[in-house]
Input
Amino acid sequence: MSFQQDYDKMIKEGTIQALVIVNINDGSIYWTSGNWELNGPEFLKAWAEKQPSVNVQGIKYSVIDITDDRLVATNVKGQGHAVAAKCPTQPYVFVAYAPANVAVKDAYTGTAKLAISFK
Output
């Protein structure tokens, strides 16, 4: 499937509810689903410094897994998950919001597949 088909499927199934594609080089927003605001430079800084949490739209997400290629975080008050995966072929990071009723592993895996399928 293409990026668009994979994205549409994830939205329809409710695996994620929002997606932002961030340029790794400067933190600028390359693409957004339009329903989730992310401060690209702030998010990338938190990731690079492997901070214990990230904030998006005033919601704190506690990091549960972080490497150079992925970030998986959840809100301890049940306000959902923030997951991120680096695109292996282009200088972008895919950051997605998933609702709390979605398994964070499923949200991350789907987001990583989106990053891989992006051309």
